[in-house]
Write a structure and sequence with these properties.
With about 70 residues, the protein is mainly α. The protein is built from one helix and no strands. The radius of gyration is 17 Å and the shape is elongated. The protein starts with about 25 loop residues before the first helix and ends in a 22-residue tail after the last helix. The chain has one helix at about 25-45.
Length: about 70
């Protein structure tokens, strides 16, 4: 059975229908480090530049929803 793995935005895979068993463990680990550990390292590195009482939400990253 083939599962929809990969795609244009996932950073891995040859396209939909690739078998999970065909993904190399090393490649999966590389993508995981990039997509999960990388942002955590950035957050840790910038934490001294954020106010302690500040609030941030994922909506702040959307330029289409913020008033001009």
């Amino acid at each position: 059975m083939a599962y929809p793995v990969g795609g244009p935005n996932s950073g891995e895979g040859k396209g939909h229908g690739e078998r999970v068993a065909d993904i190399a463990t090393e490649e999966f680990a590389r993508v995981l480090v990039t997509n999960a550990l990388g942002p955590m390292r950035v957050i840790e590195g910038l934490q001294d530049h954020v106010r302690a009482d500040g609030v941030m939400s994922s909506g702040q990253g959307s330029i289409g929803e913020w008033p001009a």
